[in-house]
Amino acid sequence: MQSELDESQDVDLIIRRNNYKLTADKIKQILSKVLNDPSKSYRRWIWELMQNAKDVPNKKFNRVSIQVILKEDELIFKHNGDPFMMGNITGLIQQVSSKASDSSNDEVTGKFGTGFISTHLLSDIIKVNGIVDYKNTHRSFEVLLDRAGRTSEELLPKIETALERIRKIEDEEICPIVNNYPDTRIEESYDTAFTYRLTSTEKQKAARAGIEDLIHTLPVTLVNIPKIKRVEVINELSNTRITYECSDVEVIEQIRKVKVDITGGEIPERLFVVYKAKGVFLISEVNDFEELGLIDSLVNNPICTGIFH
After folding, report:
1. pTM of the model
2. Number of helical (H) and strand (E) elements in the chain, helices listed first
3. CATH of the domain at 11
């Protein structure tokens, strides 16, 4: 009785519980929309992950590279961006976007905002692995984003468990130190990973649909997102491994000539010309950079965009 009375007077405890409840209510509300109309998120999930990866800086290698692995019952999305900061991890657990509400910076889409919840269409539980830079020490961590509950009351303990785990960031058994990480880190180290268990036919179907959409649009997407250098798609279902790598061949004022090298695909490379004016990007595919002959598929449909930049 005394303990219950003490808890009812503990302001810090009350505030913490209220914060958890607000988080749970928000997640439940957005999850309900996704799950009630899954067709809208069938292909959206891959673009949410791409957007989040593009917003991660890569100070050592300048541009971010991505690896996507599709298995029968699992999908893994990895990238080699810079380590997490503590605010990134808590924001991910509590579903708080890193973009300020009054931000005018169009370069930032907003890491782990509400759109990220659409990726739970693939799995109620997402396993997140990464490196965190905490007090100038690099540590590896693993946390589960468990959204299996359909009510706030069911979600609350799962959110609290994840946050309590991160509170133990200095526990060597939970978050071991990674010595000399900045020096030993290589470009092929995809240290940030989101793992989705595909536990039903419907979830497997959504994963395949997203991968198919990604493959179909990747060359143009990379031209449109210069912050992403390379995307490797490993499809164990079709036993294929395709890598797309984008590079500028020439930049003259408002015009970019861009090459996308494709390893493992039917076509070894694709060439594009990009014209930029007043925040709008006009992209056309060409057969070479000398004659600039337009590829038939885009002659009547050049791509006009400014979304991902």
Report:
1. 0.87
2. 8, 11
3. 3.30.565
